Queue: 4 jobs
Job 1
Amino acid sequence: MVQELESSALEILRGLDRSDGSALAKLAEVEDWRRIAATELERRATAFIQSLDEATVRAIAEGKIDLARLCRTVREEASPRTSRPSSFTR
């Protein structure tokens, strides 16, 4: 799984190198990719929350709805069909 993800990232980086090598050089200087990736995961989760209606968001904020549990439920329902990687996984 990790090898497939690395291959995908490499292809994107190679494309960037072909189109703008100086941008790739700047990315190579970035040291805190883990923090940046964690911030991006939070941004994506926030984007998902924004798609919910206000009553649902309030229920999540008040602890009445456990969204992580609901996510696990859906993944368990889907697991016999397929296991899909997500942009929201941590």
Note: The chain has five helices and no strands.
Job 2
Amino acid sequence: MNSAPFCTCDNYKCELNPVNHDQGCNLCMEKNLRKGVVPNCMFFAITKDKKPEGFTYVDFAHFVLDNTPCAGCAEGKQDGESSTDRSDIR
């Protein structure tokens, strides 16, 4: 049973995956919120082609910036190149 058909997580061995119970995303989200991390489905919503370096909020911010068209492309930046200097974030 999949209580969250939109779920992008393909780790079906995880007991928190919605295919393994009828509580949707609740169990997974509760665990991730408690740990202070972003669930992998949020990374998968950006791309499944690359693995994140980690799952912290900062890791997610970097992942989004590195894997989405840049906001500064009109300023001559290339896709995937940040329009701001992020070197001091890490």
Note: Residues 58 and 90 are 8 Å apart (CA to CA).
Job 3
Amino acid sequence: MAVGKFLARIGSVGGTARWSAKMYHHLNKQYPGINGKELHSRLVLIRYPKAHENAHTLLEMCDQMKGLRGFAAMVLAVEAGMLDNNKQTIDIFMEVIDEELNKAGISELIANG
């Protein structure tokens, strides 16, 4: 599974986690202490600046997301069908998300809600 984890890290899983962390840091400078639904909603609107089906789907899910980790996972579920994988693969993807958020300096509170 080391190859699979490597590919997830350099591919869309790691990229989505890194993008989420980068945008969080950007938003936190503009809106200190931003978190929860407000954070998730703003991230969706940044990711989809024009009306898009994925934006509508993700905005409806904002209340259910737990932290930046949950946000990244839901983006991947909607955009890439992450939840269609087996449990072992999903666990690897979540591990990559956690590691990338940690590397980007995201606190446990923001990462996990």
Note: The chain has a mean pLDDT of 94.
Job 4
Amino acid sequence: MAYVEDHEVSHVVDSHAGQYMPREFVATWGEFLYPQDAKMMLDVASCAAGPEDAFYCEAWCDIANNAEVRIPYGDETLIFTIHENEGIYLVRDGVEWCDECEWFKSADCDCPHV
């Protein structure tokens, strides 16, 4: 997990996991999801149960669209959003999307926004 602290965008679950990507994601990141309320805990449980759970897809959509990942890091808390595109990524709060690149803006981008 330590590698996400050093990156703006981190690939945390590979697309090869297929329909099991949400299950793999919550196995590692579930405890860091916010808000930590009853609804989130139900969604995490559904994803942890796997695609056989009746609410698996709905639960994953709720997590991916509404949750953030908060990781304690020294005296601060790093905040990430979840992005799914041929895998699952954690994106540092404040990193912007580039319409030209169709990816997140970075120092390596050759688009005019840099």
Note: The chain is about 30% helix and 30% strand.
